[in-house]
Design brief:
- By secondary structure, this protein is of the alpha/beta class.
- It is 27% helix and 19% strand.
- It is built from four helices and six strands.
- The protein is globular, with a radius of gyration of 21 Å.
Length: 211
C-alpha cells in the first residue's frame, strides 16, 4: 500500500525443493510476487555447473524473473565443508591469496556467464564489494585498501567490454543500417544528429529514425 509500484521479491538462501514448495504455496494463496530472489553465499566453493543448472531449472518453472541477490566467492582459503551455518565459522584472520583470487575471478565469470544467458535472470549482486564486510571473509571485488582484485577486473571486462555494443557502421543506399546488440540504452550519432534508444527484453525489433 505504501508503494504500489514496488518490485516484490520472495528471497532466500535455501535453494532446495522446500523453497520451491513455499513459492508455489504463496502463489496459490494469491501472495503478490514479482521476482524470485536467490542467495548463493559460496564460502565453501563454487556450487558447480550441475547444481547451478539444477537451481535454475527448479525456479524457472514459475515463469517469474529471477534475481540472484547475494552471491559470494571468497578469494582465500575455503570454509570447511562440515560447517552448516556460515555464521559459525569465525576466524581471527581470513586473508586473500593469489591462488584464491584467481579462483574467485574464474568462478565469478563462470556463474555470471551462465546467468546472463538465462532469459529469466534479470539481476546479479556480488557480496561484498570490499573484503571483510561480512564474517571477515575475503569475498570482495577489492581488497580492504580499495585496490582491485582479478575478480573486479574480470567483471569490468564483461560488463563494459564484452557485453557492451559500440559500432561504427555505413548505411546502405536507402540510408538504413541494421544493428544487433545487447539490451540497454544506446546513443546513435550520424552527420551531427544524435538520438537515444533502448533495446529491451520485450521488443524483438526496434526501428529508429534519425533526423
Amino acid at each position: 500500500q505504501m508503494d504500489p509500484n514496488a518490485t516484490l521479491l520472495l528471497n532466500d538462501f535455501n535453494t532446495s525443493e522446500k523453497y520451491s514448495e513455499l513459492i508455489a504455496d504463496c502463489l496459490a494463496a494469491g501472495v503478490p510476487m514479482d521476482v524470485i530472489g536467490i542467495q548463493s553465499h559460496q564460502h565453501q566453493g563454487f556450487w558447480g555447473m550441475e547444481k547451478l543448472q539444477e537451481v535454475l531449472e527448479r525456479f524457472e518453472k514459475f515463469g517469474l524473473p529471477m534475481h540472484f541477490t547475494e552471491n559470494t566467492f571468497v578469494s582465500g582459503d575455503l570454509m570447511p565443508q562440515h560447517i552448516v551455518d556460515l555464521n559459525d565459522w569465525q576466524v581471527p584472520e581470513w586473508p586473500s591469496t593469489p591462488e584464491g583470487e584467481d579462483r574467485q575471478a574464474r568462478d565469478l565469470l563462470t556463474m555470471l556467464d551462465t546467468l546472463f544467458a538465462h532469459p529469466q535472470v534479470e539481476a546479479f549482486t556480488t557480496w561484498d564489494f570490499e573484503d571483510g564486510a561480512w564474517l571477515g571473509a575475503p569475498s570482495g571485488l577489492v581488497h580492504r585498501d580499495g585496490t582491485p582484485k582479478p575478480s573486479y577486473e574480470a567483471l569490468k571486462q564483461r560488463v563494459l567490454k564484452d557485453w557492451h555494443t559500440s559500432l561504427t557502421l555505413m548505411t546502405d543506399e536507402n540510408g538504413q543500417v541494421s544493428v544487433e546488440g545487447f539490451r540497454g540504452l544506446y546513443s546513435l550519432k550520424c552527420d551531427g544528429m544524435e538520438t537515444t534508444f533502448t533495446l529491451n527484453k520485450t521488443d524483438k525489433e526496434l526501428t529508429v529514425q534519425l533526423g
